[in-house]
Each structure stands twice: as structure tokens, then as C-alpha cells.
Design a protein that fits this description.
Elements: E1 16-20, H1 41-50, E2 57-59, E3 62-70, E4 73-81, E5 93-94, E6 101-102, H2 108-133, H3 139-160, H4 175-180, E7 199-201, E8 206-208, E9 213-215, E10 220-222, H5 227-254, H6 265-297, H7 301-309, H8 324-327, H9 346-350, H10 355-361
Parallel strand pairs: 5-6
Antiparallel strand pairs: 1-4, 2-3, 3-4, 7-8, 9-10
């Protein structure tokens, strides 16, 4: 259960809620939720433009955003911004519900590997900077490469310290799942509801929604809520590795003057960086193909391995994952930045809801509690 004072804090992730139009808004007199207003102008502009001249209606002096269902769905939906924080804000590191800062402390090898990632990227950035200072490389290329390294490190940190979608003890099925199934899965370890596509991670000791795998290089699971930052890390690392190998290759094959040859300690730095970049390029290429396959088929790495082991790949009922469920609703520069995505319907993406949130909403959904 959440702390009573937690309801006053802004949640770590932006949570939009969606329901068919006409089902009735939450009881604004008995909730701390607020409707998208001026501080959420991006939400308003995005959904209003998609509503085809359907202006936002007003309810109780707060903005109620009305938009289409998308993807051929003609149902009109209401979006509202739920700013209630149901997470602990204690200054504690860990993966339990009472920990305010998500960090896996149960895997020392994962901690070492994640630290190596920073060492490798910082080493590469320093090497490229020294090449530019020695007039072996244009400064504009060094600036661009260091920017890519900074984005890769930010994406790594975001993936590492973000809750991947851990299922809380009080989680309940979302409305659609509750109506379609008479029984629901329970985790034998957590003794709580287990959403479809989730798995229990023995390292993090939590069930993770839409879990793809536990990555030791991230020292964290890759799940529904940190998949975007993980993909961005792979992309930026791939770009940086490919760019460095192209620079070194051009110097090796086309340098015909002594002034452009690497000398002294630079030769050793470049040789070590070449090995690092080749390994990084191969690893990130493999992982990008793996993640892309998972998004296109809706089958994560763990599920795919299980289906291959039981020869049931042909009986898969999973659907492709929408890019908006990974990168967020706003199709702009936020897609390429390692920041929290604005998900179209948070509960649907993670596969569970919370009794407190359902009580705030009221209406039809309260029948689930």
C-alpha cells in the first residue's frame, strides 16, 4: 500500500488514462487527480490536433481532452492526466516497493558490467577528443561523437535507474482483462496478480510487466516502462561504434602523409578502442534485431525462448507492440531523448491497474476492485 503523503508528489512517470467517451469522469471532489491543463500544453496540443476539430470540453474548470481511438478504431476517447504518485519516495535504493529509488543491489556482477559500460564509453570519448586536439580529426566530428556518447550514457542511466514495470502487491487486472477472463495468473513467489506477458525476475525479485530479459550490462530488467531508454542506448552505442570504425578505417586506408598518421600513445589508444567498437557494434546489432523482432511480433525474448523450447511458435496469439506504447504519444524530438515517455494508456501498457486509481476514477471500472 502506498504512503498517505505520497499522493502529493508528482509521479516519476507521466500517466495518461483513457476510457470510452461518455463513461463519466472521475469524482474531482474526492481525488487528487487533475485534468491536463496549461502545464501539460503538449498533451492538449497533440490530442486536440488529432481530434479533427473536436475542441476540448470543460468539466469543473479543468480540461477534458477528447480524441479518436486510432488504428481504425472510431471510438471517441477521453484522456486525462493522473498526477497522483502511488510510489514510495523514501530515500532508499533497491527494488522493493518501499524503496524510493530503483536500483538493483542483488547482482554484484551486473553492477561491475554496468560500470564497465561507462568506462568503455568515456574511454572512447576521451580518445576521440585527443585525436581532435592532435589535429588528426575535425572538431565538428569530435563534438558530434561526444554528443552521441553523452546520449548513450544518459540512456544507460535512465534504463538502469528506472522501474522496468515491477508489479505491485496490490495490482489488479485492468478492465478489459477482467471482463475477458474468469481466472487470472498469480505469481508463486510474489503471491500477487501476474499480468499477461510478465515474468518474475529472480535477480530483481519482482514480477516485471512485459519483461523482455534481465540485462546484466544495464544491471536491470528490460520491461514495459524502460524499453524506450534501452532501445535508445543500443541505437546511440551502435552509431558511436560505427562512426569510430569509419574514422579509423578512413585513416588507415586513405592516409598517405606523415601528418595524418597516428603516433605515440594515440596508436595504442586507437587499437584498444577499435577492439571495443567492434565488440559493441556486433553486440548492439544483435540486440537491436532481437528487440525489433519482439516489437513486431509482440513476443519478448523470454517468451520466444520458451515457445521455441516447446515448439509452439506457430501458436502465438500475441499482437505487435505499438511504437506509441514504447516511445510515447508525442511523435517529436522526445522520441530520441532518454526521457519518460507519455504513454497513451499506462494501465493497458503495463497490464495492471491499482485499486486506488480505480477508486479515483469511479464509474464502471470500480467493479473490478
Amino acid at each position: 500500500m502506498m504512503h498517505e503523503e505520497a499522493a502529493e508528489r508528482t509521479p516519476p512517470s507521466v500517466s495518461l488514462r483513457k476510457r470510452p467517451r461518455g463513461t463519466g469522469p472521475p469524482s474531482l471532489q474526492t481525488t487528487n487527480s487533475s485534468w491536463a491543463q496549461d502545464e501539460n500544453s503538449e498533451i492538449i496540443s497533440f490530442i486536440t490536433n488529432a481530434a479533427e476539430n473536436s475542441p476540448p470540453s470543460r468539466k469543473g474548470g479543468r480540461s477534458l481532452i477528447v480524441g479518436g481511438g486510432g488504428g481504425g478504431d472510431n471510438t471517441r476517447y477521453e484522456y486525462y492526466y493522473d498526477d497522483t504518485n502511488e510510489y514510495s519516495f523514501d530515500c532508499a535504493f533497491g527494488t522493493e516497493e518501499e524503496d524510493g529509488i530503483w536500483m538493483n543491489r542483488n547482482d554484484p556482477p551486473g553492477t561491475i558490467l554496468s560500470a564497465f559500460v561507462w568506462v568503455f564509453i568515456l574511454y572512447s570519448a576521451v580518445t576521440i577528443t585527443l585525436l581532435a586536439e592532435s589535429n588528426h580529426l575535425a572538431y565538428i566530428l569530435a563534438y558530434f561523437y561526444n554528443t552521441i556518447c553523452a546520449l548513450a550514457l544518459a540512456s544507460h542511466a535512465k534504463t538502469m535507474f528506472t522501474d522496468p514495470g515491477a508489479v505491485p502487491q496490490c495490482a489488479v487486472p485492468i478492465d478489459a482483462a477482467a471482463r475477458q477472463a474468469e481466472t487470472h495468473s498469480m505469481c508463486r513467489t510474489c503471491k500477487s496478480y501476474k499480468p499477461p506477458g510478465s515474468h518474475h525476475c529472480r535477480i530483481c525479485n519482482r514480477c516485471v510487466s512485459r519483461m523482455d530479459h534481465h540485462c546484466p550490462w544495464m544491471n536491470n530488467c528490460v520491461g514495459a516502462t524502460n524499453l524506450k531508454s534501452f532501445i535508445l542506448f543500443l541505437v546511440y552505442t551502435w552509431i558511436g561504434s560505427a562512426m569510430a570504425l569509419m574514422i579509423f578505417g578512413c585513416n588507415y586506408f586513405f592516409c598517405n602523409k606523415e601528418s595524418c598518421e597516428f603516433t605515440g600513445v594515440l596508436v595504442q589508444l586507437v587499437r584498444i578502442m577499435t577492439v571495443i567498437c567492434i565488440g559493441s557494434l556486433l553486440f548492439t546489432s544483435s540486440m537491436l534485431m532481437n528487440i525489433t523482432y519482439g516489437i513486431m511480433t509482440g513476443i519478448g525474448t523470454i517468451d520466444r525462448l520458451k515457445k521455441k523450447a516447446t515448439n509452439t511458435m506457430g501458436y502465438s496469439a500475441e499482437e505487435p507492440i505499438s511504437l506509441e506504447d514504447v516511445f510515447g504519444m508525442n511523435r517529436n524530438i522526445t522520441w530520441i531523448l532518454p526521457i519518460e515517455p507519455m504513454l497513451p494508456d499506462y494501465d493497458r501498457v503495463v497490464g495492471y491497474s491499482m485499486p486506488q486509481r480505480l477508486l479515483r476514477e469511479g464509474g464502471d471500472n470500480t467493479s473490478i476492485c
